[in-house]
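User: Hey, my collaborator sent me this sequence without any context and asked if I could get a structure. I don't really work with proteins. Can you help?
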Amino acid sequence: MTQMSRRAALRRGLGLASVSTLAPSQSKPAAAPTTLKEGGAEIAVSFESEHFDLAHEALLGWVRQAARAVSAYYGRFPVPRARVRIFAEGGQGISHGTSYGDDGVWCRISVGHRTTAADLYEDWMLTHEMVHWAFPSVPRRHHWMEEGTATYVEPIARVQIGNLTAAQVWSDLLRDMHQGLPEDGDRGLDNTHTWGRTYWGGALFCLLADIGIRKNTANAKGLEDALRAINRAGGNITADWPLERALEIGDKAADGKTLMELYGKMRAQPAMVDLPDLWKQLGVAREGGQIVFDDRAPLAGVRKAIL
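Assistant: No problem. I've predicted the 3D structure and written it out in structure-token form, which is a compact way to encode the shape of the chain:
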């Protein structure tokens, strides 16, 4: 990521983008929202400011690509209707993405007025926001699940539409996942609300769940099957659910046990994970600054099924 490191930026919104047809322009934005149709949904895009160097078509393409990525992961767009409100900020790049479910499904996201086509192509914030729309709103102590899901799913969704490579994603995971490990005084995911445990602790839960489901089903199913089922049952950002309800629905659609069992281990105690051994089992390593894969590793098949 050249625009902004995940370790510096993750909050309750981050996302993606990418589009090869983006072209700069000095055109002014339209006054009325533009409705995009993607993944079976209608997405109303409004420009709340006029000062963008890029043409509207470029920004609309960015929204469409984010919607395509999320639709690829979930099998369809996670809500039938949504709104994206784009605000202009000084400078360059995408920032300040936040999602809401209190008046329909929508997010506001800021785009620097000097943002380039390359910035949009490399952005991850908007996809992260749209992944939030696919999961129910859970009690505050479970905020790690909302953020962890968005942190974990976003790059995988982008790989599925060709915006990232598997090597890029595994490189980021090797670099950043350690931030989700418990430190001294940790009291489990439900009770430790640090930045690292919220975003990367939640992402670690998702990775372990994905691995567990695939091991138990011989790669017949993965975390996406659980998350799709939760969403299909009405679990989106507008719904207030207890976390256990979501996990039980996900387990029923996947292998019947992994999510609730893993939650039981990680919810109230600092469950340690030997990350170096996990990467070795998956057959992924960094050598000479490059990511290399070992297809003879015990969990190489699981790694390939994930990405």
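In plain terms: Confidence is low (pLDDT under 50) at residues 1-30. You can pass these tokens on to your collaborator as they are.
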